[in-house]
Specification:
By secondary structure, this protein is of the alpha/beta class. The chain has one domain: Aldolase class I (TIM Barrel, Alpha-Beta Barrel), CATH 3.20.20. The protein has 8 helices and 11 strands. The strands form 2 sheets. It has a 9-stranded mixed β-sheet with strand order 7-6-5-4-3-2-8-9-10. Strands 1-11 form a two-stranded antiparallel ribbon. Strand 6, helix 6 and strand 7 form a beta-alpha-beta unit. The chain is globular, with a radius of gyration of 19 Å. It starts with 9 loop residues before the first strand and ends in a 9-residue tail after the last helix. The structure holds iron/sulfur cluster. Iron/sulfur cluster (SF4) binds next to helix 7 and helix 8. The site of iron/sulfur cluster has 14 residues, from helix 7 and helix 8.
């Protein structure tokens, strides 16, 4: 008898510290060359309903929750973005993973007000995608004009006293020290005082490439999103944001019934484990 034997290693999620909410799977105002999302239809209306978010927030253990992450495609395109942000701030601090095209002075001022309105002292953290310190190189990946808009968004956020994090996909495989020092120079030029914590360097993960798992890895101490979080989407709960387009990443239908065990069998998992550092979460 032929039986499929699952040989992939597995990990158990310990606590739901990071709740990722995929606000939309397909709506984005950019089409970056290296994006892990397979875009199909430009006009698809796949925004997560606000009631689904409300229900999920009622089901999570608030005590364990450290951050709610609003992700996408582009989360700020959700028509109820402000409403969902306010709702999430009642539960924890919120990280917005954005290409920043929708952030200008007016929006930054508004978001500062939203943060101050919440009486729980929860903060809004911005993870701004920008992948190269040279405009031409960045725009060759992310599209014409994206560098200027991201830099302008950084200026607006600093003006309203946010402390954004630059989320940098190291597509060109530049040595980390060189990458950080050049980005630091860029930040200095706009009077943005940074430390190492302002730079989140992410390796480029190729959705078609399978890597060998590293030997002697300690699966109990992995630094991967599936150890500490789950992702809520319109189609159910997934182990991490990278796997929302892949049924192998599905682990439940809602936040009352998901599995805490994930089998690390995908191409993304093999690369993610080799990297062994959180791709989306903040270091606590
Ligand atoms: S891609 Fe990484 S975080 Fe996602 S399930 Fe695989 S190992 Fe875990």
């Amino acid at each position: 008898m032929n039986r499929t034997i699952i040989k992939a290693p597995s990990v158990n999620m310990e606590k739901l510290e990071n709740l990722f909410i995929e606000m939309t799977a397909q709506n984005c105002n950019l089409r970056c060359k290296h994006c892990y999302i397979d875009f199909k239809d430009k006009k698809v209306k796949d925004f997560i309903p606000i009631d689904k978010v409300k229900q999920a927030l009622m089901n999570v253990n608030k005590k364990d929750l450290q951050y709610i992450h609003l992700t996408g495609a582009e989360p700020m395109l959700h028509p109820d973005f402000n409403h969902i942000l306010r709702l999430c701030l009642k539960y924890s601090s919120v990280v917005i993973h954005t290409n920043a095209l929708n952030i200008n002075d007016k929006k930054a001022r508004f978001l500062r007000k939203v943060e101050e309105e919440n009486n729980m002292n929860h903060e809004i953290v911005f993870m701004i995608s920008i992948d190269h310190y040279i405009e031409k190189e960045n725009d060759s990946l992310r599209g014409r004009g994206s560098y200027r808009k991201a830099v302008h968004a950084l200026q607006s956020l600093i003006k309203y006293e946010f402390n954004p994090i630059l989320s940098i996909v190291n597509y060109f495989n530049i040595p980390i020290d060189e990458l950080k020092s050049n980005f630091k120079e860029l930040c200095d030029s706009i009077n943005f005082e940074t430390t190492d914590l302002n730079f989140k360097i992410i390796p480029y993960l190729d959705k078609n490439k399978m890597m060998d798992m590293p030997e002697n890895i300690d699966y109990t101490n992995l630094k991967t999103e599936c150890k500490k979080g789950r992702t809520l989407t319109i189609n159910g709960v997934f182990t991490c944001p990278l796997l929302c387009c892949d049924n192998r990443g599905k682990c439940g239908s809602d936040l009352t019934d998901y599995s805490s065990k994930s089998y690390l069998e995908t191409e993304f998992c093999s690369q993610c484990i080799n990297h062994n550092n959180f791709l989306f979460s903040l270091e606590l």
